[in-house]
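Quick one, T. Sequence first:
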Amino acid sequence: MLGQWALPRTPMHFNLGFAVLLAIAHETCEIVGHHHYLEIHDVIIDSVGGMLGVCMMSLLQSGYRRFSHSGS
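Structure tokens:
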């Protein structure tokens, strides 16, 4: 079940780019919704968190694949 996530065959750099774009889109919605200026620190923190999540999932998937195929 761990290997079955939303974007299993996309290259990791696409997923990393998506994590950064999601952080920028989130901050844009906050600017429009709350009428405040760009908070670049929020974008950086959200981007780093998203990239860490993508990297962790990639590592977990590669370990899961190796473990599941080693018993065959």
